[in-house]
Structures are given as structure tokens and as C-alpha cells.
Amino acid sequence: MQKMTKLMRAVGVAGALGLAAVTAFAGEISGAGATFPYPIYAKWADAYKKETGIGLNYQSIGSGGGIKQIKARTVTFGASDKPLTEQELEKAGNLMQWPMVMGGIVPVVNLPGIHSDQLTLDGTTLSRIFLGEITKWNDPALRKLNPGLKLPSAAIAVVHRSDGSGTTFNFTNYLSKVSESWKTNVGEATSVQWPVGIGAKGNEGVANNVQQTKNSIGYVETAYAKQNKLTTTRMVNKAGKAVSATADSVQAAAANADWAHAPGFFQIITDQPGDASWPISASTFILMPMQVRDANASREALKFFSWCYAHGDAAAAGLDYVPMPANVKKLVESRWKEIKDADGKPVL
Amino acid sequence: MERQRTLARFRRSDKIFRNLTFVAAILVLSLLGAVAVSLVTGAWPAMKEFGFDFLTTESWNPVTEKFGALAPIYGTLVTSFIAMLIAVPIGLGIAIFLTESCPMPLRRPIGAAIELLAGIPSIIFGIWGLFVLAPLLQTTVQPALIALFGNIPVLSGLFAGPPYGIGVLTASLILAVMVLPFVTAVSRDVFETVPTSLKEAAYGIGCTRWEVVRNVVIPHTRVGLIGGVMLGLGRALGETMAVTFVIGNAHRISMSLLAPGTTISATIANEFTEADGDLYTSSLILLGLLLFLITMTILAGARFLLWRIDQGMKS
Question: ipTM of this model?
């Protein structure tokens, strides 16, 4: 009998605790947006759920969709590979934006006898290839950059993304920075009017077409290139040094970017200064309203992001993402206080 | 008394049944209407901005927000046309073989295989096209075509350029494989409706098999045949995934069939998720509306054709 009451009491306490947890935060953190960071968000969410019991429902519907959904406030946070400008943030109903994790974008080639990081390109040459101005692999510009390599006298087959993508945005942003002709004729966006080449869907589509088409060139995320053993190229950066696309060179680019003076963290980290900087680096962003409707949900989301910054670096590196530098994380966390509930109280 | 009550009950249940079926029919119509209305409202900003220029502009530039539908419309029509050009003769051939000269034990297995082909999801065709068909075309068929027609005017233009493996021709071939089962299955079914007495009469007066098919079977079934072809064409026009994989997705009109192109549905599938900006989204919806109109026009045309043939046969 005594045993019985003890058991009952235990059950009662457990039930009360469970109830308390439920009233504190019901359900999951909801977010939507970019596909590029989806694998790492999913991994973080999995580990976070094991620790705290709070899950994440992230729909990887693309950056454009993420921006639309956070504008409509149907999710707690949006995610985009393309940062919004200060005006755009304001127009979308006062959003706050910060970078979450980074990656690199690397040109990949299929040239007989040429292995990863043997071919070197610079921004001007890359832009002229994608503009259709350089059409042969043994063009003088390419030979000058690669004096030791035997380049074939073959036509260059250009492969680009056919779907709108943050990868394309950062790639074309880089080309616009290094080439006046690219900037005026093509410009930068998640999808552009490509002067030459074939379009393939997704990183895997580009990778596949490059692997299948001899003498081709395309661009993919570095993580994707590494996992699929594609032939990557080296790039000459702003400082005039040839670098390979690695986690270190991407992090160097981010460290050299001036985040503190970027309003709304609008910072595109392509073509950054520094000897070790990888020139086509990219960060992916989180969007949240400055004045939230559901303070509970927003608090949980911020707690999750804070946990990711603190404990997520190893998981990110494991998936070939590059964690944000410590000084940037600190800066971002100090801004979270500006996210307030309906009464004007900070949610965190 | 008992009888009247029962009759009244029957009348009531009959009325309910009739109303239910009526609602079901209306539901389809109103769905169609709702689709059209939401497409038009979604496409309105683009219509206002570009007007008829949308139909005649080749440029599709998300950066400057100048959109034109000429390249996707061209790609949609050309790939579907070539696909039908390949699939219709082959499909008719299979159907004639199955109904006229195929040994009985083989009829069922071949027929079943064709029907299974129709059940394969389009994404499988896309993957097969990208991994198997495209490399094959790139290394063997396309270089041969370029070499063969290189010196012939017109044809050299149709088969010009570097062999990418993917492009308008590859997309057309995939579409041909995809519509083949529709054309075949419908033709076989309608061929089987030809009365045996008709065919036997023709054979009896000494017609060859070819003459029987040409002068008896096909004239007797042309309404159904056109229906089958239109069903296939409808699928070819709207097919998305398989085409997206192998067409090359370039917003350009090129005379060469080996060059990359795009179709309406491939463009929408590729770009809708990341389309930011109202005009961009609206232009994509307008593309969808155009596809809706093209498909409707072709289906209505087919109906009209069938009606004309019906009238002709009656008089």
C-alpha cells in the first residue's frame, strides 16, 4: 500500500514536471528558407533535441520562400543565403538579420590529366569564361596563369545552376566585383541571364554535368565538391595570392570582413582582403522580426541559435561548413537583445 | 399506403443522389474556374508590366526584371512536336502489330510491358536520361549527327554545336519514350473495336494486311486515334521533371536541336522557389497561365477536330 502511494506520488510529480515543460514552450521551433544550410541545421536540431527536448521544424524551401514566409510571419525565423539590405529589412516589417554559418563556392573542372588544385584561375579570367569571351582552354589568359600545365585546345563547356540559388547569388556577386563587364551585362542575383552554357538543377546537377562533359567548368559549394571528389581549382584572391578552397581560407575571408560596421549584418564575404582569404566565400543568414508576436517561440529559437554558436562548430566542420569567427558570434549575440515582445521587453 | 411510402422514399433518395452527383460535377468546374482565376490574379502584375511583349521577348533577366516567354514557349512546342513525331509512328506500329499480326501468347506480355512503361514516375525517366541517355548521345549519336549533316545546308544548322549530351533533342527523345505508352495503349484499344466482320470482308476480297490496316482499321478508328495522340501531347506539353533534367535549362532560342533550351514547366520548376521580387514571381505565374492556355487550346482543337470528323461520318 505504501509502495503504491509512493508510485502514485512519483507519477504525479513527473506529470506535473511534464506539464510545466509543456506550458513553458509548446511544440517546435519553426523556420523556413535556404536549402544550402539545411544539412547542418538538421544536425544541430537533432543534437539540440536530445539535450533539451525541443525540436526544430525547418522547411528547406529556398531563400526566396524563406524571406516570403518570415515577411508573412508564418514561421518564427526565416533563412536566406542572400542577405537583405537595411532598406529591405525595414520594408519587410523590421527584421533582424545575422550570419549563422559559412561555406565556400569553388569552380570545378573536367580536364583530362588535371587534378584538384592544379589549375589556377583569377576573377577576371573566370568572369570572361562565364561571359563567353574565353572559349578555349588554351587561351593566352589561362596559359599565363598556369605556365606549367598542358591545356587542351578544346572548347570550354560552361555549366551553371538552372534553379535560383544562394550559390549563384554569391558567385555572380563575386564576378560583379571583379569584372565591370559582368556587372553591367549580367549582374548579380539568385538567378541571372547566363550568356553561355547549360543550366543544371542543384549542386548535384552541376557536379554531374561537369563530371560527364569533358572540358567543362562549373561552380559548386566546397562541401559538395569535397564530398564528391570533384576537380577543384585554385583562385587568385584580392591580395594577389593563389589559394585553395578550404575551411581555413573561407574562415580567413570571414575574419577579414568588417562585420562590426555592416548595418544589419549586410555583409557579402566575396572578394575579401587578406593573403589567405578564399575569394568566393559565402555566409548564410537568419531572419527574425525585431518585434515578435510569440515571445515564447522566439526565445526558444534564440536559445537554439545561441546553443549552435556555442556547441555547433564541430558538427559544422564535420559537414564541411565553416563556423563563424568568435568575434562575429559575440557581436551577433549582443544584438539579440534588440528583439522584443509586444510590450517592448527583450525576449531573451 | 405502404407502397406509396416506399415510392416516396425512393424518390427522396433518388433526389439526394442526383444532387450529390450534380455537386460533384460542379466541383470540378469550379475548381477549374478557381485555378484560372488565381492564375490570372497572380499573373496580373506581369501582364500589366509587359503586355503582349511578354510573348515576343526572348530575354529572361531576373537582375533587370525584364521577362519574356518566347524561349520557354518555343522549347515547349518544339520538344513536344519532335516527341510526337517520333512516338506516334512507333506507337501506331506497336498497336497494329499487337492487334493484327502478333502471335496470341505474346500479346498479353507485350501489352502489359507497354502499360507498365506508362506507370514509371517521370523522375525516373529524368534520372535515366541524365545518367544513361545523355552520355550515350554525347559520345556516340551527337558527334555522328554533327559529322553526317555538317555539310548539308539547313540540316547542318539543326545539328550544330558542341555535343553537350543534354539539350532539346535529348528532352524530345525522353518525352517520346514517355508518351509512347499512351499513344500505344489507346490505339490498341481502339483497333480492337474494329468489327471482325469488316476486317474479314476486306481480307475476303483479297486485301493485304497493310491494305486492311490502311483502308479499314485506321479510317474506322481515327477519332479514337486522334484522342490517343492528344492525350500523349497533353502529357508532353506539361511534363516537368524529366525535361528539367535533360534540356539544359538555358533561356535561349537556338536553331540547333543539340543546343540547350528550356520549357515553360521546367522554368517554373527551376525558378519558383527562389524567385524574389513580385514581378519575378508574377512572370512565372504568367508562364503557368500560358501553359494552361496552350494545353486548353490544343485539347479544344482536338475536340473540334473529333466533332468535325463525327459530323462528316454522319452525313
Answer: 0.74
